[in-house]
Amino acid sequence: MPTYTPPLRDMQFVLHEVFNVADEFKAMPAHAETDADTINAVLEEAGKFAAEVAFPLNIGGDTEGCTLDVKTHAVTTPKGFKEAYAQYVEGGWPALSCDPQFGGQGLPHTVNQCLYEMLNSANQAWTMYPGLSHGAYEALVAHGTDEQKKTYLPKLVSGEWTGTMCLTEPHCGTDLGLLRTKAEPQADGSYKLTGNKIFISAGEHDMAENIVHLVLARLPDAPKGSKGISLFVVPKFKVNADGSLGERNPIFCTGLEHKMGIHGNATAQIALDGAVGSLVGEPNKGLAAMFVMMNAARLGVGNQSLGLTEVAFQNALAYAKDRIQMRSLSGVKAKDKDADPIIVHPDVRKMLLTAKAYAEGGRALQIFCTLLLDKAHHHPDEKVRKNSDELVALLTPIVKAFITDNGHISTNACMQVFGGHGFIKEWGMEQFVRDNRINMIYEGTNTVQSLDLLGRKVLGNNGATLKKFGKLIGQLVEEEGVNEKMAEFINPLAYLGDQMTKFTTEIGFKGFQNPDEVGAAAVDYLRVAGHLVFAYMFARMAQVALRQIAAGSTDPFYTAKLQTARFYFAKLFPETATLMRTARSGSKALMDTDAALA
Fold first, then answer.
1. Is 64 noted as a catalytic residue in this protein?
2. Residues in CB range of 35: below 8 A, 6 or more apart
3. How much is the pTM?
4. Are strands 230-235 and 267-280 parallel, antiparallel or unpaired?
5. Catalytic residue among 443, 478, 479, 488
6. With contact defined as beta carbons under 8 Å apart, do 543 and 467 qualify?
7. Mean pLDDT per segment of 10 residues, for the chain of length 598 residues?
């Protein structure tokens, strides 16, 4: 059976020693009183909930899955899920980072991010039920009417109700311009929606008394394509004027998908048969409103793979220390045993360190991004808000795609550490692999994220935002460029930073002549950009560790951090050279292949 220990020490290191979040919060009136002690206390309790309540349900939930009563359209979640959610609500966890005016606790997004990392390590399928509610909350805060906010937000914040987003249809996924769900205006100002949606995570369940669906649909006079999409809020149960629940709305679950992983989450097929909803935002501008939820979800999906990478690493490390197999190539290490523990073997260490480096780099990036979100929402300086918003927009596709790709690499590597036992269910490793696999697909596949990064976020503004991130790198290089002890971390970062401008310009010029060149290079480009960002994170973490050691600290944590950083730069970061070469190879080898793909 797997185990899980919340990585509180590493979280505290990134929060307080690398990014000094408490000092950052002092500049934001909404969070000025959020100090390090408060953050640590909250995360300690969050870790207990994740490890003691959510984690024990993970294997059972995967085995049991969800069940649908086809006559009543009711979905039953796995044993213990509903009770765990009740504990979650009772503890006030749904309200952690929500606005106090809607009943929230008003803590920073940065704290909520750490809570969700631990929940995803513990049980990704369970965590998706409350997790999607945050996106619905954000969309309604940004685009909802006063009446919608009054009706839905307090219940979403308390956790009494949960939320979903209903985008995908049987014939259209990412290309939402093709969707067919219709919304007919009614005399009372409401709308009746008719259509079918698929792949709706947490689309029906028994954990909350109401589900608030955010649904994309077309008005009768809507123009074709993505410019004719509107957003509607459609509750499972209609809401009376006094806030009580009314009659059942005809938005039903008609089937549950049979999936590779996340079996404990109800991935629903949804039918709307004249379901009553209200318009969110302006007519035909629903995508702009939904993108608030989608961007939150993309950061959340990166967090799912971060959580799985961490828990897979923890279990693989424990197994490698215990499992004996063969002798070390450099001589016997465990003289009292018939063989040495497999952790003595170089390639086992490589697999373990790959997962450790990708977990620690991902954690630093996620915290960095949520700190940017807090600044974008709450900093009093408009310039800081704008700059933070631009940077997090640039980094969002990297968080979603790079961290989930790394999660795939890491969970597979950790399963490999177990040998044949990794393939067996009771060890838990194969579930981490299966659960992670969806993260590379939903909320926009990782190829879509790559096109978004290169096409929109970089080339779309001639690299202006990328240059802003480059300035952060430049500041660190200037600060530490003459420090010999930092050279092994700073030099490769500075080199790639210099190369990135030329690399981007080259791809952009080729793409201007032939758009397929962008499509051919995008996936490799994103991975190079991901390593640039991770290299910056590891250089900053190494900087802190070296300073602590120089100040006399003997805490082995700092030595471990330096060793992990060295491994990252020596064994993972050099992938960038190959990626740039393949990106530059162009589209011809892909597109001039009609015979090969006949």
1. no
2. 22
3. 0.98
4. antiparallel
5. 443
6. no
7. 97 98 98 98 98 98 98 98 98 97 97 98 98 92 96 98 95 86 98 98 98 97 93 98 96 98 98 98 91 87 98 98 95 93 98 99 98 96 97 97 98 98 96 98 96 97 96 97 96 97 96 96 98 98 98 98 98 98 97 98
